[in-house]
């Protein structure tokens, strides 16, 4: 629907659109916009739902849960960055509205839960080998590293590029799951990049 597409476009421009702005962008009259949606919140909720339907394929991780730790970390982080770049504006809007809309809040929490379960599945081998306390803390830490809010902090508030955000997240996950690189040193990062390069060449 053109009206919802207009809302998503305006979100991507960091605007917080009302029916009047949406009407101008979609080429409709404000009265026509209100004919489809009873108020501004209903309009925003519908746009968020539409965007989520569009990006569902981006949640899929190729060969989920298989391969070496290096490969699984790379696949997860690249998938999360693809998802982040696709949904960032509408995801921010959803989180703002979740404070006063139980429906949006439930939607945001459901998405977080899916992403959390994905992290647990991607690193099931490492997590299952841990004690209960370690599994709980490492799983939570990995989940936080890969959630929208963390990626948004890097990109928006720290001014990281997409590439720098990927590298930082990959390094942090290695520090969690790879005992040989917990020191986070330059040498450790170089070793990981070398292993990733060899894996890429082999493929």
Report the span from N to C terminus.
41 Å
Tell me the count of domains: 2
> Helical segment tally?
11
Q: Give average pLDDT, whole number.
A: 84
Number of strands: 0
What characterizes the major β-sheet? none
The outline comes out as elongated
Low-confidence stretches: 182-186
Helix content: over 70%
DSSP strand content: under 5%
Computed CA radius of gyration, to the nearest angstrom: 20 Å
Q: Secondary-structure element sequence? A: HHHHHHHHHHH
Q: SS-based structural class?
A: mainly alpha
Structural write-up:
With 203 residues, the chain is an all-alpha fold. The chain folds into 2 domains: 2-49, Arc Repressor Mutant, subunit A, CATH 1.10.10; 60-202, no CATH class. The protein has helices at 2-12, 19-26, 30-36, 40-55, 69-97, 102-122, 124-128, 132-146, 148-157, 162-177, 186-202. Helix 1 (2-12) crosses helix 4, helix 6 (102-122) packs across helix 8 and helix 8 runs antiparallel to helix 10 (162-177). The longest helix is centred in the middle third of the chain and has 29 residues, at 69-97.
């Amino acid at each position: 629907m053109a009206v919802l597409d207009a809302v998503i476009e305006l979100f991507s421009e960091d605007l917080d659109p009302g029916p009047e702005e949406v009407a101008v962008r979609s080429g409709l009259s404000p009265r026509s916009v209100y004919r489809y949606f009873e108020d501004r919140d209903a309009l925003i909720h519908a746009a968020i739902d539409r965007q989520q339907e569009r990006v569902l394929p981006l949640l899929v991780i190729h060969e989920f849960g298989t391969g070496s730790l290096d490969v699984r970390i790379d696949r997860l982080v690249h998938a999360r960055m693809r998802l982040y770049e696709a949904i960032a504006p509408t995801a921010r809007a959803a989180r703002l509205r979740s404070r006063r809309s139980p429906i949006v809040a439930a939607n945001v929490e459901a998405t977080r839960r899916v992403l959390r379960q994905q992290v647990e599945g991607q690193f099931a081998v490492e997590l299952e080998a841990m004690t209960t306390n370690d599994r709980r803390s490492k799983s939570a830490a990995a989940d936080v590293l890969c959630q929208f809010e963390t990626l948004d902090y890097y990109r928006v508030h720290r001014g990281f590029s997409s590439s720098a955000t990927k590298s930082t997240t990959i390094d942090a996950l290695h520090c969690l799951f790879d005992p040989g690189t917990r020191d986070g040193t330059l040498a450790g990062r170089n070793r990981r990049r070398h292993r990733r390069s060899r894996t890429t060449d082999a493929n």
